[in-house]
DNA sequence: TTAATACTTATGTAGAACATATAAACAAAT
DNA sequence: ATTTGTTTATATGTTCTACATAAGTATTAA
């Protein structure tokens, strides 16, 4: 009988820095700290938490990485609006993420893309449509692989931009390298996917004169070469 | 003329820990480190980078927070599969995020919800549908607000679960408190939104016997009370 | 009043010391 | 011979002290 049948759970050592980090987060939430609020000095925290200044600094360093805290000499530290995807960005490396996670993120981006329709139609402007047409126009008679990738990014990036939602846009920008990685891995395994029946030109036409419903269906077909490869 | 017209950018002091953190990340990527690989000892890193062990530890502490590094006494440190949303989770507090970011995240969750259709239809099982029906059944004749919220979470949570995508599921779970916060804030401003023409029962019926296209449209209508409030 | 100066303070960095867990090697016991 | 106990070396965890550095504050000089 293997050890795993005993369901022994691995003891993971919790360090002081872990505890202090959590205490600080709880402290901020409990006291409804807002960006701009000053927080206690390192030595005061160390004294209050009964740990060395070093441990406090390790915990603070973590929060600084997330943009949650800013510090200046003499002036002390203030809470600040964190970079919501800061931690996400650092961790998003195809080489260190599990295959399943990469696959999940690949799907996540496709789900996003399918769900954009209503936001796009709600907020599109004539200028947006004109730029989309320009992007599509530029891609005609271009066959180099490197250009195609750039064009893909420009076109779909513009779609995200049209939502007017900078958070979604940032999110998709972060997911992009993952998407490309998964696509290239798939191509190694299964070859170049068939070209979709619906191209960028068709999508633009629908944005111009069609309905969200038509767009959703068109986008599904546009993505279907990828979609059909999902398990 | 105000200072802002000079486009002076705020000098933000870059600390050694910031630099070392970046160097470490670059080092891992450049050398194609994979989870399980051992990384140099603290003292070696300090020596190589010509900084104190203290600074190295602050940088390492950050990566440990993201789950990117695990350390054990004597055994040293190994790279590990990071928690992809770990940093995100810590930062997701309605009180410290800007109103616009909250709004963006609110929309992001709606976009996700609209995009789920194809994954759900691709992977649904009879058991899934049965459970959805059970959830809907339980909600009949329940009118307490607290129950309604729980029911909402259970129903939509099940929809996410049916995608079989644990990353998407985790993501939506993290977004949930934000969603609830924004909804409650909106209710304070504009009152309770009108009840949608499409309820959970209708959605289940479509999942059972309908098409992804019908589901998308139904979900749009289901969410329209929220959607119509978007600027 | 203004400007130059010194003082104070909180963060940033360095280095040493010790605590603690544990891998590895070795010795003892069954 | 395999297991069990003991020793030892070592890498991380924690604390302490000291000093550097930037930036408010108070003081002084013009």
Describe the protein in words.
Chains A, B: This is FadR family transcriptional regulator. Chains A, B: GO terms for molecular function: DNA binding; DNA-binding transcription factor activity. Chains A, B: It comes from Sphingobacterium gobiense. By secondary structure, chain A is mainly alpha-helical. Chain A folds into two domains: 64 residues, Arc Repressor Mutant, subunit A (Orthogonal Bundle); 141 residues, GntR ligand-binding domain-like (Four Helix Bundle (Hemerythrin (Met), subunit A)), CATH 1.20.120.530. The first copy, chain A, contains eleven helices and three strands; from the N terminus they run H-E-H-H-E-E-H-H-H-H-H-H-H-H. In chain A, strands 1-3-2 form a three-stranded antiparallel β-sheet. In chain A, helix 2 crosses helix 3, helix 5 packs across helix 9 and helix 5 packs antiparallel against helix 11. The radius of gyration of chain A is 24 Å and the shape is elongated. The two termini of chain A are 33 Å apart. The N terminus of chain A is likely disordered. Chains A and B meet through helix 1, helix 3, helix 4, helix 5 and helix 6 of A and helix 1, helix 3, helix 4, helix 5 and helix 6 of B.
CATH class (first level) name of the largest domain in chain A: Mainly Alpha
- The number of helical runs of chain A is 11
Pair with the biggest interface = A-B, 73 and 73 residues
Low-confidence stretches of chain A: 1-6
Oligomer: homodimer
As for the CATH topology of the largest domain in chain A, it is: Four Helix Bundle (Hemerythrin (Met), subunit A)
CATH architecture of the largest domain in chain A: Up-down Bundle
H/E element string of chain A? HEHHEEHHHHHHHH
Span of the ends, CA to CA of chain A: 33 Å
User: How many β-strands of chain A, per DSSP?
Assistant: 3
**What portion of residues of chain A is helical?**
55-70%
Q: CATH H level of the largest domain in chain A: which superfamily?
A: GntR ligand-binding domain-like
Number of spatially distinct domains of chain A: 2
- Shape label of chain A: elongated
Give average pLDDT of chain A, whole number: 92
Q: What integer value in Å does the Rg of chain A equal? A: 24 Å
């Amino acid at each position: 009988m293997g050890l795993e049948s005993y369901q022994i759970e691995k003891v993971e050592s919790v360090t002081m820095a872990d505890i202090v980090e959590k205490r600080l987060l709880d402290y901020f939430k409990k006291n409804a700290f807002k960006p701009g609020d000053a927080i206690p000095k390192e030595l005061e925290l160390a004294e209050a938490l009964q740990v060395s200044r070093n441990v406090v600094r390790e915990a603070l360093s973590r929060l600084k990485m997330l943009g949650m805290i800013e510090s200046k000499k003499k002036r002390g530290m203030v809470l600040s609006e964190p970079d919501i995807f800061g931690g996400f960005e650092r961790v998003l490396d195809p080489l260190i993420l599990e295959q399943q996670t990469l696959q999940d993120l690949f799907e996540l981006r496709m789900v996003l893309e399918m769900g954009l329709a209503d936001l796009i139609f709600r907020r599109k402007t004539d200028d947006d449509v004109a730029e989309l047409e320009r992007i599509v126009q530029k891609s005609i008679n271009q066959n180099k692989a490197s250009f195609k990738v750039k064009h893909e990014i420009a076109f779909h990036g513009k779609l995200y931009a049209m939502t007017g939602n900078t958070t979604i846009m940032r999110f998709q920008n972060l997911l992009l390298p993952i998407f490309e990685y998964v696509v290239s891995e798939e191509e190694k395994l299964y070859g170049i996917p068939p070209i979709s029946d619906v191209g960028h030109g068709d999508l633009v036409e629908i944005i111009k004169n069609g309905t969200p419903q038509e767009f959703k269906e068109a986008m599904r077909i546009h993505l279907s070469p990828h979609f059909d490869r999902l398990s």
